[in-house]
Amino acid sequence: MSPPRSFALIYGAQFLGIGAMTPFLPAILAEGGLTAGQVGGVLAAGSIMRLLAAPLGGRIADGAGDVRLILAATALVAAAGAAGFGLAAGLALLAAVQIAHSIAMAPVIPLTDALAVGAIRRHGFDYARIRAAGSITYILGAVAAGQAVGLWGPRAAAWILAGALLATAFLALRLPDARRAGATAQGSLWAPLREPGFVRILAIAAMVQGSHAAYYAFSTLHWQAAGLTTGFIGVLWGFGVVSEVLLFVYGRAFVLRLGVRGLALLAAGAGVLRWCTFALTVEPAALIVVQTLHGATFGAMHLATMQALLGLPPGVSARAQTLVASAISATSGALMWGSGLIYAVAGGQAFLAMAALCGIAFLLALRLGRAQAEAARA
């Protein structure tokens, strides 16, 4: 199987499961007998575990040499955890399942990205196109889970996720071997932080990706309060994902021309415009236009990060990926909590705080080293 096809399949499997599970996990916990407060606590515990587990998984993978084996093992354990959601009930059992599943799931996507970086170094294929498979199957997973949940209840989503993770484990062993002679792990868990420019791209990615927290948590509530229909709100969310897919599939020349610095500036600048618009208007036409910026705020920032990581030594690749994932997770969690406090008092003005964060990221992106950008672009 060719490297692009093998990575497209594994990203497709992963995001099919994530798309199925994400909308319905709170409903699964509620059906298992948890109160609203307990649901929030169990979800928060999962976020904390993912934050702690992802970098450790990266360190183990760098030291093990063959990242494929670690990816397959973590996907298998995560699949067992997903099955646990389909079977467990009660606070103690569901909390234990959530913790175990979150620890195993935390490194799955970062390790896949690390393997993709290694394969790109060797085979030179277009990462964005193969990653687009995940964006497409995320939508398909959500749609499929919605139908399954209507027939069999919320736990059906957990079984879709379990099957997707079993497929991930199988496909991980069929990925190309990205190991290189002399590319064994060097230094501690934090070794990537010593690489030139890594801390800055880490901070920019955390701020720009984290700025989506208010969007994910409160945009639907904000638009419903303004009188927009649920059907139109669904269209708005769809526009965002479509723009992301279009960038991944057709934007290769554009991405190569901009490089790391240009993509980061585009993402941060688009974030300022997008979140300011969300704060200032609920005019449907304006919202449709700025929703197309999701391809920039999420997609361009993700591709900038991947290009920057291509410039790092192979021996720190897995740790770098998982440190980025942890930084984004921590920032998103904190901003979701903080934007909730602002939204409770000022409603849609919470998006202005997200715009300000992107403004800071824009200033940091201006200082990204051109040498680093050129190295990552090559």
Automatic annotation (TrEMBL):
InterPro entries: HcaT-like, MFS_assoc_dom, MFS_trans_sf
Keywords: Cell inner membrane, Cell membrane, Membrane, Transmembrane, Transmembrane helix, Transport
Sequence ranges assigned to domain Major facilitator superfamily associated in this UniProt record: 10-347
Primary location recorded for the protein, binned into one broad class: membrane
Membrane-crossing residue ranges in chain numbering: 7-29, 35-57, 69-93, 99-120, 132-150, 156-176, 197-218, 230-250, 262-282, 288-310, 322-344, 350-369
UniProt superkingdom: Bacteria
Any single Pfam family the record assigns to this protein: MFS_1_like
Keyword Cell inner membrane attributed: yes
Location in or out of the cell: Cell inner membrane
Membrane topology: Multi-pass membrane protein
Protein name: MFS transporter
The organism of origin for this protein: Roseococcus pinisoli
